Amino acid sequence: MITLRGRSAAFALEAPLSRAVWMLTNRETLTPQRRGRAFLVEDGEEPPDGFDLYCAVDPERVPVGKPWIALPPLLRHLSAGDVVSVSETGEHVRVLWRQESPANSVLLTERCDHYCLMCSQPPKEREDAWLLDNARELIRLLPPSTPGIGFTGGEPTIYGDRLIDLLCLCRNLLPEADVHVLSNGRRFADFGFASAWAGIRNPRMMVGIPIYGAEPTLHDYVVQAEGAFDETVRGIVNLGEAGARTEIRVVIHKQTAPALPEIAEFIARNLPFVDQVALMGLEMIGFARANMEEVWIDPVDYRAELSEAVSLLGKRGVRTMIYNHQLCLIDRHLWPFAVRSISDWKNEYHPECSRCGVVERCGGFFFSAKYRHSDHITAIPSDALTKRDVLHV
Amino acid sequence: MSAELTFDTASHTADAIQRAAYRFCDRISIELVSDEAAHRCTLKPVGDASLDALIGDFRTEVLDQVLRERIRAETEPIRTMILAQAFSKTGVVDSRGHA
Amino acid sequence: MSRFRQLEDFQPEAAHWELLPFRFERLNGKVLVTNMVGEHLILAAEEFDEVAEKRLPVDSALVRSLRAKHLIRQAGDRSPATLLALKTRTRYRRLAESTGLHIFVVSLRCEHSCPYCQVSRQSSDKERYDMSPEMAERGLEMAFRSPSSAIKIEFQGGEPLLNFGLVEEIVRRAERRNREEGRDLGFVIATNLALLTDEILEFCARHDINISTSLDGPADLHNKNRPRPGRNSWELATDGIRRVREALGVDRISALMTTTKASLDRAREIVDCYLELGLHGIFLRPLSPYGFAIKTKNYSAYDAERWLDFYREGLAYILELNRKGVMMTEYFSAVILKKMLTNREPGYVDLTSPAGIGIGAIVYNYDGSVYASDEGRMLAEMGDETFRLGHLATDSYEEIMTSEALLAPLEESFAPSAPMCSDCAFEPFCGSDPVYHYATSGDFLGRKPESDFCRRNTAVFKHLLGLYESDPSARSTFLNWAGR
Fold first, then answer.
1. If you measure CA to CA, which chain B residue comes closest to A234?
2. Contact (Cβ atoms closer than 8 angstroms) between residue C34 and residue C40
3. Residue A393 predicted with pLDDT over 50
4. Whole-structure pTM value
């Protein structure tokens, strides 16, 4: 997840901002509502009155006599419905929500008790509960029709009951949203917490918990924390007992790929009650990039293990999905399991893809794939797709 | 025809020998006499069974039964605990609220 | 990066291993090990010795497999016990769901005269050999006393279609009663299909009734076992199968074979016969050892070994079909595979421990007597009332379900406390069959070294495990069967 942020090109506020979180609105989306709204100045016309903050796309065209900031260069493409946080002085701007994105992820903290070899959001130890406060304000601004929201970290359960409160708020204000929370699951080993979590009773909420081994040594190594596997597994059991929707995620890389069939067998035999298992391709950012030697593996080199894992899970009734894998790198019979999930897919990125007949159906690439990707990307003729390749959900 | 086998009491229990004997009861009939020092087994074939071929297997089985006895003894506490948890009303969560 | 620790740092410090409960059997120079819930691992003999003596080095790859399969744990691990308890609880969950299958013998009359059948009567004396409406009503009362959330009512005989009026009555009353009870109610008629009419089919369609029939194989094989006036048992059965598929649906009919000596050389033909009729599952049934089969000289110890050849040949052919994309399940193997590869209960009453008698299935005979199983009823027809639990007119649910006639065989045959079974690595895949052992050796437990039930099952377990470990396409098919 890439957080867009930057320094305002210029700013002129009479007083420090009274709030941190702002939803952008423009002429097309204008309503009498002013609270929490910032007006997006996109042209030279006189903007409407009454807003506590104006965000100008062009530092040359700013509203005189009104509190304004000129958006950082990277953020000039923002649109109405997007939500930003702005520092008190107006100097720093960070994007919290992009209306056009099908999968927004809200960062709740950068603190974490793990240190995964391939972590895409490397942990930071500093106090950052203001991220939780921002998240609350964001939820209050989003329209009730919002279709989905994700919560990530770091480790969000660090907040304990405050996280539960936030998720209750989310359930109440965003009743249409599929809510996906990522967690290492360890806090759920405390049944009281797992019970409180299930007590949120949002039928659209699911927690995604990673498992990287069929036994402690491998998993604890990948997450760099002793005792992690034992606690995480107990957490998942508690979530099952409490009736909370749970997903197990397995990020496949050089360390976990050889053990993938054992991990699948372990899940199928011990944790078959989970709602789904997501087998995920590696994102080449954060620690994954730094640890490339330890974690990079060409997906074609684990085709067999991946097929075996899907067989061990799927045939015994565990809902299994493959994320972030290009179709040309996985066995043909696995295509129905492959989810088209990456939102920043750019199809002019790899020359083979521009010739590929199944590109519309493919999982695509992370933006970060430019740092490393398979040597075996190959265009596939378009008649390779059949009706059976519709993902069975 | 018959054969005599001796097992010392230090490393073999009568129970282990009896369990081994039970497994072979369709092929060998076994008479067991034990004193402080040793267990003495008299083996006789049942039906057409060939005693020579079976003696080696029987010895191996006795050793395996000794091993099974040790495993049973070592794992009895954890087995009891697992069964208690499995059949308790509160599921697999213990009284302190932990899985 | 130097901040990241190595894999070795996460291996346990001292080799402080604790064994978790497991059992083992030696197989062709290797050792099969199974944990408390039947998960297995096959080790080399030396590896097994290292495990047993706990001298496996901490960096051994085998250690990871043993931990993953809950055969050993490191002191301090808590999830193994939790997971074993959870899996154990799942495996025994069916006990709270007694009794699932209620067999109503609606008539003893039958127009066939199969040599091995001891129960049927060639008679038109309905008064004498049909179940009365009063007994049927009492039987339903008893059925709904079962705590099970799913109740399956199976109509048997003789030939149940000869008393179809009572079948209709029982179905209607059960449905009416179920409006308050809200169970998952299902019906099946076990019939030879010779007397099938369109009216009967229509009733079955309307009330979601399934059909179970007998199909021994090709016509000559089937007809030899099943004489009837007209000598056309096979023609009627196969025509009936077609009609049921078309009128009710392809999943609404299943066929069972009775295996006789004559079947043993014809595995492929029998499977082909099922295939041609559009049946996508077959039960390669073991030979029956019961008195009536012995009476008709249809069983001997030698045949037990031949049956295993028959089974292996039939299974190999079925696996070959599956490789070609043909859907054909072998149900006996599927039951065992479910126990081997999942924690789910296949619900097959003849291969569970505690035994399925009474608590898995129960029989209400035409005359109101209650039996612990169908075979128990057959023994009674031959003069042995050991498995008679009581009578619908005189005994209550409690009296029947706590009768000595039921509890004694259940207790005595319980495998985990039986000699040899309690040590056996295959025990999680197996079951108790007190009726079988009583019929063949005179007591509920039997002596397993002499038991063909044990020999046969053990051979089948070894065969299936061997295929699972060595043949990827068989493994794939087995996973499908286990998961269904």
1. B99
2. yes
3. no
4. 0.93
